[in-house]
Amino acid sequence: MSEQVRVRFAPSPTGDLHLGNVRTALYNWIYARHTKGVFVLRVEDTDKERSTDTYCENLLDIMKWMGLNWDEGPRVGGPYAPYKQSERTSIYEEHLERLKAKNLVYPCYCTEEELELERKRQLGRGHMPKYGGKCKKLTVEERQKLDAAGNTSVLRFIVPPGEILVHDEVRGEVRFPDDQIGDFVLTRSDKSPTYNFTVVIDDALMKITHVIRGEDHLSNTPKQILIYEALGYKPPKFAHLSIIKGADGQKLSKRHGETSVESYKAKGYLPEAFLNYLALLGWAPKTGEILSLEQMAAEFDLTHVGKSGAIFDPVKLHWMGMQYMAKLPLEDLTRALLPYLFEANYCTREQARQKFDWIKGVVDTVRSSMGCYSDIIKETFYFFSDELSFEPAQTEEMKTQKPLLETYEKAFEAITDFNGENFMKAVKETGKSSGLKGKALYHPLRLAITGREDGPELAKVGPLLGKAEVLKRLAVWTKEEIPN
Ligand code: GLU
């Protein structure tokens, strides 16, 4: 029987969760579910200056919001607890002692400035920068002297000679030629362990079978393999996911728009839509693009993950959001949107209570253009306010449309039951008497009553606004004083 798959998501709580990390979390989650394995959440908070409890709690909350529940980790515990690195100090110390006993580490006293100078020199000669090993040569006496003089030191791991081969589940064999990796730091000058050290110990002790993470960590992998070997642990399988890029081919950053999951939550994206979109960044499911988490879990496999970089496209994300919005029952959707309407001062709670059915009608009319809840604000402004604003060119156009708008006015005035059918009858009559059709007929009406160039069907908009309001908005253009 093959061993049970154990994967982990290991974020550092140093900021809001980035889209790239969410995709990593998602692929780990669906792989665990696909294989009936275990999904571990481990908080990598050894960087004391940048990690905060608030970021950590937010991270756990947002994972819950997305529905990426973890089988082991903070809040739920598990057989390999604790799952926060800041609580595992003694475990790292113990492992460090093992490496010390094998003479695989040495203290390095080089200052930042010295290291920087070395780097620059190497780059200047066209070499890959790596630590040259100056402090490895220090004698015991020299070290004692440096310590006694109050010099701080870090501990470096002695990299053995030889090429390192990484078998990557996504990228195939990746070779790191001999001499590319210098002795690297295991503990900082404040004695805190570094990422490359803690990640190995935790992955080994937590019995992780597959490390699925971003390609930006590929260069760390040979270092980690060396530590596995030095400690006598079996390395897991590795799968490095290609970096998510912006439309310009550069690594996704703030320049390309919002990059944190929090910002998409705040916009009112449904977590299912958000994850569904992210799932497609690196994987092309065979059964189509719209998949629930369960469907993803059923279909996903690491062998299907692509090597090439995926492009983040906010327009496609919005489209995905629309597919999910469309599935919500109208009543639920309307209730979910009320806080956004209150926030925008479109209506009060009391008004929402009194006019709930009308609001439902408004929502139904615009819902097909909505990719996230907050879209309701831009989509429905004209239903809640008659303070429409027009560009100078639009005002000019409307001035020339006065005769047409007067015809509309008369046709609408004659309607007793202002429903969609009668409204459209009046529009058609206006078309006949004015000799206009298509855009020439509809556009001035739409602009006059909604202030917008496009939008939902007029047959729905007109009755929702109501006869009095439609006439009032037309009168703005048909009476003498036309706004500038
Ligand atoms: N804490 C690391 C990060 O957030 C984890 C990398 C890994 O998965 O090994 O980038």
- The count of β-strands is 11
Number of domains: 4
How large, in whole angstroms, is the Cα Rg?
31 Å
Beta-strand level of the residues, as a percent range? 5-15%
Q: Report the major sheet.
A: 3 strands, antiparallel
N→C terminal distance: 79 Å
**Amount of helix:** 40-55%
Mean pLDDT: 95
* CATH fold title of the largest domain: Rossmann fold
Gross morphology: elongated
What name goes with the CATH superfamily of the largest domain? HUPs
Report the CATH architecture of the largest domain.
3-Layer(aba) Sandwich
Bound molecules: glutamic acid
Structural class: mainly alpha
Q: Could you characterize the architecture of this molecule?
A:
Helix 1 (19-34) crosses helix 10, helix 9 (271-279) crosses helix 11 and helix 17 (402-413) crosses helix 18 (420-434). By secondary structure, the chain is mainly alpha-helical. The chain folds into 4 domains: 6-86 and 244-317, HUPs (Rossmann fold), CATH 3.40.50.620; 88-241, Rossmann fold (3-Layer(aba) Sandwich), CATH 3.40.50.620; 328-373, no CATH class; 392-478, Arc Repressor Mutant, subunit A. Helix 1 (19-34) links the parallel strand 1 and strand 2 (38-41). It has 21 helices and 11 strands. The model has no long low-confidence stretch (mean pLDDT 95). A 3-stranded antiparallel beta sheet has the order 3-4-7. It has a two-stranded parallel ribbon with strand order 1-2. The protein has helices at 19-34, 53-66, 89-101, 112-124, 140-148, 195-205, 221-231, 261-267, 271-279, 293-299, 314-325, 330-343, 349-354, 356-366, 375-384, 392-400, 402-413, 420-434, 438-450, 458-465, 467-478, and strands spanning 6-9, 38-41, 105-108, 154-157, 164-168, 172-176, 184-187, 210-214, 237-241, 244-245, 310-311. The protein binds glutamic acid.
